[in-house]
Amino acid sequence: MHEPLSWRVSRKSLSCRIALALGLASALFVGSSSALAQTQAPSIELKPAIMSLKASRTLLLDVVHAGDRLVAVGARGHIVYSDDNGATWLQATVPTRQLLTAVHFVDASHGWAVGHDSLVLHTADGGETWAVQYRDPELEQMDEGFGYLEKPLMDVWFRDANTGLAAGAYGLLLRTDDGGETWDDVSFDVDNEDGFHYNALAAIRDSGLFMVGEMGTMYRSADYGDTWETLENGPYDGSWFGVSATGEPGGVIAWGLRGNVFRSDDFGDTWQEVTLMTPNNGPLDSTLAGGGLTPDGRLVIVGVGGVVAISEDAGRSFNVRIRSDRVALASATALDGDDILLVGQRGAVTAGPDGAATSTDAVVVPVPATEE
Description:
Layout: H1 5-10, H2 16-21, E1 39-40, E2 60-66, E3 69-74, E4 79-82, E5 90-91, E6 100-105, E7 111-115, E8 119-123, E9 131-134, E10 148-149, E11 153-158, E12 164-168, E13 173-176, E14 184-185, E15 198-204, E16 208-213, E17 218-221, E18 229-230, E19 240-245, E20 252-256, E21 261-264, E22 272-273, E23 288-293, E24 299-303, E25 307-311, E26 319-322, E27 329-334, E28 340-344, E29 347-351
Antiparallel strand pairs: 1-10, 2-3, 3-4, 4-5, 6-7, 7-8, 8-9, 11-12, 12-13, 13-14, 15-16, 16-17, 17-18, 19-20, 20-21, 21-22, 23-24, 24-25, 25-26, 27-28, 28-29
C-alpha cells in the first residue's frame, strides 16, 4: 500500500496529543497523521516533575476516575488529582518531566500512566505518588547528545491488576502480566509490518479489546489482548485518534480527523457513519482528539477549537457545542451530577452538562510549591 505524499510528509509531524502539548494545535488541521515521534537530543537522566501552583492550569491530556478521585496527566510530568469533584486539585509526586499522554486505573488505588520515551509510571496510592516501571531501554545505551527516534506511548489499558497493555508509536505494543514489574515487547503479535502508530485502546462490552491508529488502521482482540486480528476493510482511511465502547454489547465508536466519527454494533464487522452537526447546522470539520464513555453512560468526545460532542444514545447521535474560548481539548469525563470535566490546552475545566462554560472554570491547585 502506497501512502499519499501528504501522509508520507505528515508522518514526520506530531501526534494529536503531542501537537497539543507543544502548542501546535494548528498542525491538527493539516492532516497530522498519528503518534509520531521526533528526532532530538534527549536528557538521558530522569528529573522529577517540578511542583507548580499552575499544574492544573497547564496542558493536560487525559483524565480518569480512580474510585471517587479524579486523576489527570499532561505536560512536564504533571499529574494532578481532585477529591472534591474537580473543584480543587493537588499535584502528585512524579519522577519525570516527560510529557504524559494517558492514564488508566483498575481500582481506586492502582493506576498506570504512559508517555514519551516509552515511559510507564505506576501508582499504588490512588495517584498521589508515582514510580517508573518501564522506559525505552535504548536510552540506557546512548551517548549524551546522540539523536534518537523517540517512541512515545499513547495509551494504556489493564485487564486487571496484573495484565495490561501499552501502545504507541511505530507499532510499539508492550505487555505485562505481573502488574508492571516486567514489560515485554509484543509488537510482533499484531500484523503491522509498516509500523503504523497506535493511538488508542478500549475494552468493548461482551466482546474484547479494540485498538486504532494512523492510516485507518483498526485491530481487535476477542481475548482481550492475547491475540489480535487486523480489520482489512475499515470505514475510513485517515488517522483515528480515539476509540471507545458505546456501552452496548459489541458497540464501538471511533473518531479522528475532520470530524470523522464511525460506529459499529458488532465489534467492527460493519460500520455506520455518525455525522456531527455544529450548532449552526453545518457538518463538523474539526479534528477530534479524545474522550469516551463516562461512568454515567454518556459518550463525550472533544477536540480542537473547543469542540465538545455529547451523546446520550450510545453514540447514535451527538449534541455538538463549540465553546466560546475555542481552546483545544484532549479528553473529558463526567462529574458527580450532570457536569463534565474537560482537560486540554488550559488544564482542567469544569463545564455544564452541554459542555458550556461554568462559573467554576478557574481551578486552583492548593499546594505549597516552587513554580517552574
